[in-house]
Amino acid sequence: MGFATTATIPIIPLAKDSVLLPGITIRVPVVKRPDIPALLSSAFTRSAFSRNASTTLSIGCVPLNSPFLSRDGQELIDSPRGESGRHQERFDINPAKATKDDLFSYGTLAKITGVQTQPGTEPFILVEGVQRFRINEVSQEKPYFEGEVTFYEDEGKLLRGTIIHQFN
Hints:
Elements: E1 2-13, E2 25-29, H1 35-49, E3 58-62, E4 106-116, E5 124-140, E6 145-153
Parallel strand pairs: 1-3
Antiparallel strand pairs: 1-6, 2-5, 3-4, 4-5, 5-6
């Protein structure tokens, strides 16, 4: 894994037990998520006024932290008193109410490929993983997350030539 570049991008916290990897497509529910419409509105506005406007919107998808892992993925050692049990109340975090401390340190850059909706069901945005990144700093939490990230080039990567639109 080699260093690629640094950029500021909008970030969507994924629901519990959801992870996005490069080359994979997942559905992200929009209902009860005020951060997603705000993020999309801002991204479309920026894209419309950008000189190098693109039809592809790129966002970061980051899983929520686990009470059993550190932010960088290392397994936490549990003492005989079961101290990790204290963190159980934070295990069922609503992604719409997450804070920067609830986010895992790594995520995946994704391109929004569409919106899926059917009568009587909740709408979803479809996102396809493109490239992995590490969060350096979360610069904004409300109305949606935005952060400075460092992208990594994976060896043997299937997706090449993806344009990363920087949101500055």
